[in-house]
Write a structure and sequence with these properties.
The structure is a single chain. The protein is of the alpha/beta class. The protein is built from eight helices and seven strands. Helix 3 (76-88) links the parallel strand 3 (64-69) and strand 4 (93-96).
């Protein structure tokens, strides 16, 4: 038996978010039909991660799971909430995969969403992200922005944030405009639709890409993080944040 893949979504009050995550996991199952794929949310939506892990811990002898965050950087949820939830799941052996970003597959999904929105060569881009006070999360977003710039042929790509960090998406747009960029698009660095994604898109003076959603590259990346965690025990060091 392969360990269960538990995809960990943030959760949202926007009903489109749950539908999007479920569609993504269906793509994952299509790619690997024999793998048990479950869903757990950090908050706001059922099933909550703790409930999913509890169910797994009681279903069979010596159960094992790999938690794959459907999150885009090394913020508090990845560093604290997931390890804490895994520690509470008595009797369940767990590994925690790295977050989805940064990674070339993620950049490919961002690139294709921009093309779908009408991005044209030479158009500068604001990479609109949720934002975090964790410096590692900011570093991951900047890394993704650099990779996306390379994928787009070297155009300017700068981060903008919906909360907890500066600059805001609107401020990032204004900064690019002040630098002489007359064509600016917004790339949605969100896994699913929601309030932050909608607000970021509204700040775009040009094309505004859809969230990553159930993009095929994202489904491949979920399985890549799962396999990576199985090979290494933990895909990368994830130190618990200090209180």
């Amino acid at each position: 038996m392969q360990p269960t893949l538990v995809a960990v979504a943030h959760g949202s009050r926007d009903p489109r978010a749950l539908h999007t995550v479920l569609a993504l996991l269906e793509r994952v199952r299509e790619l690997r039909p024999r793998l048990d794929v479950r869903l757990g949310h950090v908050e706001l939506n059922a099933p909550l991660l703790g409930d999913t892990l509890h169910e797994l811990s009681t279903r069979a002898r010596d159960p094992e799971a790999v938690l794959v965050p459907l999150l885009l950087g090394r913020g508090t949820h990845v560093k604290r909430d997931l390890p804490a939830a895994a520690a509470r799941a008595a009797g369940l052996r767990t590994r925690i995969a790295a977050p989805l970003g940064p990674h070339p597959l993620l950049v490919e999904a961002l690139f294709e969403r921009l093309l779908e929105a009408g991005w044209t060569p030479g158009t500068a881009v604001v990479l609109a992200a949720a934002g975090s006070r964790d410096p590692d999360s900011a570093a991951d977003t900047h890394h993704t922005a650099a990779l996306l710039s390379e994928r787009l042929g070297g155009v300017a790509v700068v981060p903008g944030y919906a909360s907890a960090a500066a600059p805001t998406t609107a401020d990032a747009v204004r900064a690019l405009s002040a630098r002489g960029h007359h064509r600016i698009a917004v790339a949605s660095y969100f896994a699913a639709p929601g309030r932050f994604a909608s607000a970021s898109a509204a700040a775009s003076p040009g094309p505004a890409a859809a969230p990553l959603g159930a993009h095929p590259a994202l489904a491949r990346l979920v399985l890549h993080r799962y396999d990576e965690a199985l090979r290494t025990g933990r895909a990368q060091p994830l130190e618990l944040a200090t209180a």
